[in-house]
Write a structure and sequence with these properties.
With about 425 residues, this protein is α/β, with parallel strands linked by helices. About 15% of the residues lie in helices and about 30% in strands. Strand 9 and strand 10 (about 130) form a beta hairpin. Helix 1 (about 10-20) runs parallel beside helix 6 (about 310-325) and helix 4 (about 235-245) packs across helix 5 (about 265-275).
Length: about 425
């Protein structure tokens, strides 16, 4: 175990070096969203798989209509009709056209599509002759076979988290059963004699357990499966008894509270009794300095602060990147983004790295951020409306108008 607090980046690197992606499984396509792809996906067909019309109109030979204009419309004999899903049974010869719908296969002989709007009377069905009012070039209004994706091309990379767009791509290329990494199961335990459950009345000296639900929501958003344990009092044996039976069904343990060196901070001894070896404790950050990282075999233990803001910062900075890596994600660390400060946060140099709750927004084409006034580690009011953490490095001075690094975790509005 380290004998000194680690810099935030050093602490994160130590955590990430210690965790590995979980085993791979296969899930039905309809259930794959939220998982991370475990294999590269290549195209088994061209997209489009054939030359197809990009709009409703008439498939024609461009050379037949090269002199067309409203003053000199070119008449073409309509020899058939084709819609999406049809295979045209006719060939377009000189002076002919085929009525075609969007997505329809281009018939043999045609090399352009004239949209309805560029014809006289072309909207009307059952025409024997259509008059084209504008010239066309070869390929006009046609999506060529393979112009989007060619067969054999890499379309999705291993380590990509699957969303709606990725699901569409997987369906396009016939992935009925999708190879993915198993989602990590995170056992979550809040400690503190002062805690009562959310449905219970708050008696003198008590507070409701919010940390478990906050951490569970963050775990779920990051692609994990939260497993909430009943909060335990500040008693080492009670904490151990609450955790030990749940470890077999979990991939990581997150405890909140009791992580420091106070009279009732039992997490260090509990971790030891559970057979976990502490790799480091304390990070040079505020809030969330008393952070403990341990390992029980291949299972990581995260001891985070009991103060809500500190617990949030610990989870965002250390737990979620580790969980994303365990879930197989190729880039588990969310990169920092630059934003212009709308209020001063450090008029004089600060001693250690801080992460401040803020609200980022787009204004005038630039990303800007306002830092909340209440930044105590025990405050939760400043979470309302916040969507980022503003990083202020030790030694920095950040006044209004300065550019700052922010960690975005929520949606950004436009003002």
């Amino acid at each position: 175990m380290n004998s000194y607090p680690l810099h935030v980046d050093e602490a994160l690197n130590a955590v990430l070096r210690s965790v590995r992606a979980l085993e791979t499984i296969r899930v039905p396509l309809a259930e794959c969203a939220g998982y991370v792809l475990a294999e590269d996906v290549t195209a088994d067909i061209d997209i489009p798989p054939f030359d197809r019309s990009m709009m409703d109109g008439y498939a024609v030979r461009h050379e037949d209509v090269r002199m067309a204009s409203p003053q000199a419309p070119v008449p073409l004999r309509v020899i058939g009709k084709t819609a999406a899903g049809d295979v045209p049974a006719v060939k377009v010869e000189r002076g002919e056209a085929v009525r075609i719908m969007t997505g329809g296969m281009i018939p043999q002989g045609a090399d352009a599509v004239c949209r309805f709007e560029a014809t006289r009377g072309g909207f009307e069905q059952g025409l024997d002759t259509v008059h084209v009012l504008a010239p066309l070039e070869p390929g006009d209004n046609i999506a060529r076979r393979g112009e989007d994706i060619s067969r054999g091309a890499a379309v999705l990379r291993k380590g990509t988290r699957i969303g709606a767009a990725e699901t569409a791509i997987l369906a396009t290329f016939g992935s009925a059963q999708v190879p993915v990494y198993r989602k990590p199961v995170a056992a979550i335990l809040a400690t503190g004699t002062e805690l009562v459950e959310v449905h219970e009345p708050v008696r003198p000296g008590k507070i409701r357990n919010s940390n478990s639900y906050m951490v569970a929501a963050l775990v779920r958003q990051a692609g994990g499966i939260p497993k909430l344990l009943k909060a335990a009092a500040d008693d080492a044996e009670a904490i151990r008894a609450a955790v030990e039976p749940e470890l077999d069904g979990a991939d990581l343990l997150i405890t909140t509270g009791g992580v420091s060196v106070g009279d009732y901070d039992n997490i260090p001894s509990v971790y030891e009794k559970l057979g976990a070896e502490t790799r480091f404790w304390k990070a040079l950050i505020r809030p969330g300095s008393p952070f403990r990282f341990a390992e029980r075999g291949d299972m990581p233990f995260f001891g985070i602060s009991g103060n809500p803001a500190a617990a949030f910062v610990n989870t965002q900075l250390f737990v979620l990147p580790a969980l994303r890596k365990m879930a197989g994600q190729r880039d588990p660390v969310v990169p920092l983004t630059k934003a212009v400060l709308m209020n001063a946060v450090a008029k004089t140099p600060i001693k250690q790295t801080r992460f401040l709750r803020g609200t980022a927004f787009l204004e005038g084409g630039r990303l800007k951020v306002t830092v909340a006034s209440g930044q105590s580690s025990g405050m939760i009011g400043s979470f309302a409306g916040a969507n980022c953490l503003v990083r202020v490095n030790g030694g920095d001075v950040l006044r209004e108008g300065a550019e700052a690094d922010i960690l975005l975790y929520g949606e950004v509005s436009i003002r």
